[in-house]
Amino acid sequence: MRAGLFIALIAAAWLGGQVQESLAQKRLPASPSETGKALRKESTPRKETGRSADPYTVGFVTGTPQCTEFAIAQDIATTLAGGQETGPRGEVALRVLPIVGNGGIRNVLDVLTLAGADVAIAPVVLVDRLREARTFGDISDKLTYIAPLHIEEFHLLARLEIRSLSELSGKRVNLGDDGSAGAILGREVLNRLGVKVSESNLGPEAALDGLRKGDLSAALLVSGKPLSFLTQVSQLDDIHLLPIPYSKELLQQDYLPSTLRHQDYPNIIAAEASVDTIAIKSALFAYNWPSGNERFRLLEFFVQTLFARFPEFLGDAHHPKWREVNLAALLPGWQRFRPAERWLQQQSGGEAALRKAFGRFLEGKPTANPPDREELFRDFLRWRERNPDK
To answer: How many whole angstroms from its chain centre is CA 307?
Structure first.
């Protein structure tokens, strides 16, 4: 966490002038009660190009330091930093710099405007809405995607006396920073399910403090499980995870059913217990730099390096959400970054070969009492190290 905050502070200092200038020209949209109304049309933002950016550093916009998406960005930054040849002064050909966003509209806006912001993790449904509502004009040719990522679960923390979603009606509920995925999509979900709340827009730490003091009845966090921030919560706080029922009629088009289990949060979910919730898909989006631009060439190198070293992210040292990622998966309605598409088509290795190799590995395992999938996958990675040609 300290390392993440340190990286975030460096990023903030480096881009601070650009952020202030950009947001002075383009303020974030307001957040009325309905998502469709919240994403109001505004003039198309311009990408800053006059100010020179570090030609070796990819700016990676992510969520707050408490979220899993920031941990994913840190995984990429630290892994790609290793294994590179350094110059006479210790310089490397590729660096990845995590930049703190809000996990929602700010992530998209930063990629669209800041010269040093190249890629961002963002919820697919939210980016789709921004495009459809033309909130920032036509962004179809300004954004491209590198790969779909993992799903982000809705974590609804509630005071112990709140036992069902309907009991939150009229209560004060924190949905996260204004413009975040939690604020926009959480508001939409509650409205669809007919639960009218008094909305608060605090950060994660302040929201947790409000829950403990009783100033809030509930607080929503939208991020991939397991969320390390929730290790701060215990059953002694009189806080629990409240189920969010999945309704096909009201939620099927944009949301997925999911489950939070004891192994995800042993500190607040009892053994053998589980909590039903909903989730959204996330993806790694990029600014669609012109092919002759130096940022395009840097992004191409980033993609080639990330894809080639993708198997490294599947081990125990990295976040479990990496095991949900399928680099070759498609994102309907969006154009994939051209070098990423070429890599996937040309490489005999990558995700497709890894899955085939995993299948060959499974053929040699006994069928009786198989170990759980995570343990099996760890065995597989060790097997790959011993058998690199298979």
So the answer is: 18
Q: Which amino acid is at 354?
A: L
> Is the sign of the CA dihedral 33, 39, 41, 43 positive or negative?
positive
- Between CA 212 and CA 199 the distance in angstroms is 17
Q: For residue range 115-169, list pLDDT tens digits in order.
A: 889 999 999 999 999 999 998 889 999 999 999 999 999 999 999 999 999 999 9
Residue 186's φ and ψ, nearest 5 degrees, are -60, -40
Are 125 and 185 in contact by the 8 Å Cβ rule? The answer is yes
| Positive or negative torsion for Cα 306, 95, 204, 19 | negative
CA distance 63 to 183: 13
The token pair at 27 is 């303020």
Domains and CATH numbers, the chain: 2-30+37-150+282-346 (3.40.190.10), 152-281 (3.40.190.10), 350-386 (no CATH)
Counting every residue written for the chain, the total comes to: 390
**pTM for the full predicted model:** 0.78
